[in-house]
Each structure stands twice: as C-alpha cells, then as structure tokens.
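pls design
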C-alpha cells in the first residue's frame, strides 16, 4: 500500500424501497425520464415506521443504486455527455451513472406522503432503481451559499434547457 491506501473492502447495502415512475412502462437505462415528472418512492413495509415525520420536509436527499449502469473500471477523461466543445474531465467531476460505485444522489421536492409511498418531483433515477437511503434536506446544513460550478457545467445546463424547451 502506498500513499495511505487501504486494502480493498466490500460493503453490503440493502434497499429500503424502489423508484416507481408512472411515466415509464419498461425500465430502460438508455431512455430519458423527465426528472420533474411526479415519481413514487415505494418504501418497503419493514421501513414504513422510519418515515415518521419525513412529510414535514419540503425536500429530501435520496440515494439510489444505479443498478443498470455499467461500472467504471479505470479512471479516464472524457467530454461530459460526449458533447463537443466541452473540456475533458474525470468522472468525479460529472454526474455520469458510470462510476466505481454506481450511486445516484438527488434532492427532489417532496409532494406528499401516502402511507409508505413518497411522491416526489425532481429525481434523476430509473424506474425500479433500489433506494438505499432517504434524508431530510436541511438548508442550514446542506445549502452552500458560496458553492460554484465550472463554466462547462453552466454551458451543459444551458444546452439541456434548450433541448427540453
């Protein structure tokens, strides 16, 4: 081991629920799913009591396992989304699902809770994606007023806005 590296360890995770997208009939990782479409987070019955009080939040942090994403096996640089005119960057500078550990993170608006189903808007996840964790979004702890993003990301966002109307 060099430079403070530790031996490789594996960790076990378990789903607490699954993403259900009413706008999708077949789960397909290559399909575009509107992140702003109303989406259900179906929590497993054994975790329903853990939802107590979550409906008091306006937004949540949701961590999903991107189970259909191909894992990145080695570091390499590429243009974000393969778009010409953007600089080559490493995967940790992007939100690509192709990661060493395919974790997705979103901060959707919580629209309502119905039993063990949380209805949200603003989640970027495939239908059927396993949900690993949910946390209430707390602006005092989570909002960073001094946060900045690279210029290429603002260019990419502008392209997305233009494409989606």
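designed seq:
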């Amino acid at each position: 081991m060099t430079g403070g590296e530790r031996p490789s360890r594996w960790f076990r995770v378990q789903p607490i629920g699954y993403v259900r997208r009413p706008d999708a009939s077949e789960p397909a990782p290559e399909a575009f799913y509107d992140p702003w479409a109303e989406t259900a987070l179906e929590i497993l019955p054994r975790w329903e009591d853990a939802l107590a009080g979550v409906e008091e939040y306006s937004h949540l942090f949701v961590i999903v396992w991107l189970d259909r994403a191909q894992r990145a096996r080695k570091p390499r640089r590429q243009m974000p989304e393969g778009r010409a005119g953007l600089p080559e960057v490493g995967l940790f500078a992007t939100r690509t699902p192709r990661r060493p550990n395919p974790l997705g993170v979103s901060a959707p608006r919580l629209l309502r809770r119905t039993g063990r189903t949380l209805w949200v808007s603003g989640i970027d996840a495939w239908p059927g994606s396993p949900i690993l964790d949910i946390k209430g979004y707390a602006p005092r702890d989570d909002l960073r007023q001094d946060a900045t993003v690279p210029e290429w990301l603002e260019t990419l966002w502008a392209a997305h806005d233009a494409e989606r109307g």
